[in-house]
Every structure is written in structure tokens, then in C-alpha cells.
Design a protein that fits this description.
The chain has 119 residues and is an alpha+beta fold. It has two helices and five strands; from the N terminus they run ββαβββα. The chain has a five-stranded antiparallel sheet. It starts with 19 loop residues before the first strand and ends in a 5-residue tail after the last helix. This is Lipoprotein.
Amino acid sequence: MACGGEERVRAPMSPPPHAQYLGVQTRLLEGDLVSFVVRMEGARGREDVIAYARCAAAQYTLIRGYSFARHVRTNATQSAGIWQADGVYTISPDLPLGLRNMDAEVIVEDCHEQGIPTV
């Protein structure tokens, strides 16, 4: 089960039928603060590309041996049919303070069920 206050990842529907996930750039900003820049073609809107960034953040959290991430902010833009999102998260082994926490295992499982790739 998800932890209290955890942010939901589920997009409104399954991924768009013609979605192309164009990759993830991961940047360690400082300490446990990480930026994930994702690009996507065929998204229905900003929610799709933001879900892609969350999935990347959750998988990266697990790769680093941590269990939780906290969403700081996400900016999403579109240009020439390509959506881009820059999501910033803190990652930690323990449940961080705040209301925008994510249990990385739960998020990654949800992403797989929805067909959204992770890192």
C-alpha cells in the first residue's frame, strides 16, 4: 500500500497509442537533489510527459539504493510536437518530510502496469 501523503502517478488513461518516449537525462544537482529531463512525442498533454518524468525518478531512486523520492517541481513545455519535462526530486532511504512523497517501488510497479518506461 502507498504511504500517506504519497503523490499518485497514474495518468488519466494508458499511454497514448502512438507515444514515443525519447529518453531521459539525469542530472545530480546537489547531494540528494536530482533533475530528470524527459522528452516524448505523441503525448496527449503535459500529464503524459510528467508521468514519464515521475517514472524515471522512481526507477533512479531504486537504482541508487533508496526507497523514497519527494517531488520538488516539474516544468513541462511543448515545441514542434515534442513534449519535454524537467522534474526535480530529492531521493532518500527514509520517508522524507513533506506531502509530495513517492514510494519508489510502488511507482515503478505502476509505471510498468501502464506501459511507461523507466530509466
